[in-house]
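Task 17 of the worksheet. Students: predict the tertiary structure of the chain below and write it out as structure tokens. Keep your answer in the requested format; marks are given for formatting as well as content.
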Amino acid sequence: MRYVSTRGQSPAVGFVDAVLAGLAPDGGLYIPEAWPTFTAAQIAGFAGKPYHEVAAAVIGAFAGDEIPADALAEMCREAYATFKHAAVTPLVQLAPEVFMAELFHGPSLAFKDVAMQILARLYDHVLGQQNRVQTILCATSGDTGGAAVEAFRGRKNVRVVALFPEGRISEVQRRFMTTAPDANVACVAVSGTFDDCQAIVKQAFQDQALRQAVDLSGVNSINFARIAAQAVYYFTSAVALGAPHRPVSFCVPSGNFGDAFAGYVASRMGLPIARIVVATNSNDILAGAFETGRYARGQVHATMSPAMDIQSASNFERLFFEATGRDAAATAQAFEGFNANGAINVPPAALAKMRQMFVGVGVGEDDTAKAIVATLDTSGELIDPHTAVAVSALGRVDVPGPVVVLSTAHAAKFPEDVAKVSGLTPQLPRGAADLAGRPERFERLPAEAETIKAYVRTFAGA
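Model answer:
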């Protein structure tokens, strides 16, 4: 299995090199040269299987022969043993033909754990064989950082620097990062938005001297292994509801578009998906792109669903590349232009292809709050604001059922907002109940690429 850059100026690489690099040297994102596929019989065979076995099959299709099958199977078994629910991502019914996949039973109570736990084990396996120590630099809008810290803390082959926008994530989200005492972890509160953090990470990856000096890698959803791992719960959820004998739709709260793009990946592998609803909050760059064809960056608005407070969705570049018939030159021109001017007009033919699967819906704060209350009243489920954005969006579109809403975080990660809306204060699970009392450790830095690159270099050297 070979991986190519969406911008076409970097040589094709294998799975391991794509995972360890994160971002391609030309600034593009890696994507498989050809999509691996499952037959209908193979997909049907996933029914009733333990989650870790399905994960090994799906991720193994992308790893090829670079990771031995027995080693990958053991990594998956270990990774998903860290989840508090035996089904890992169980389904709960909200209404007739509407189900919710609970993706928050991992160590940091967010869907990012599903990919990060296996990614950490892949890094351990490969770096141990190569006798390397890498520095992971990640930007987080709330949950990626906590999941990365939880997965990589204490590992001898990896250092982690997590950037988060100061004052723009919940206290619980912050504490899942900043309370880790491990010496290989550093957290930085950046005086800006998530988009600022993400832009700094991309600039760091394009600094070849820095990349070589600290052996830089990334675990944001720019890393294709994250996407591959997230495709797994599309398979398990759909098969539980009758796939491949009938198609299933999904509704995904989306910020950086990685979770929704994972559904596209599953469909390319043979899973029959009818529609994917891309639900955004008032930071509706994605909803606007699917509605009008104009992908345009606006001002970032702070909302009660902060992990989606994004106006630059990295994984949209992968979809653009696919929808333009893998036109790397057009993709490079479009996204280099976006970095400079903040807007892309999606070609009509490419937009038509995107709309065959995706529909975008933007949801305001009032409707998010109403969805929390309505879901509690009709199902007894107390959902977090990100899930509520998806529930509200689903009520505005007509998509064929059954439909799975991806619930991306535990309500207890946003206790103040959930309590204000519902009158109920969600409680942290037993293993995280003492989170508020743990000492924090983090730095405060300006949103300046050179300052943060210097910090990363110093931390890696220490």
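Marker's comment: Residues 91-109+224-422 form a domain with the Rossmann fold fold (CATH 3.40.50.1100). Residues 260 and 407 are 12 Å apart (CA to CA).
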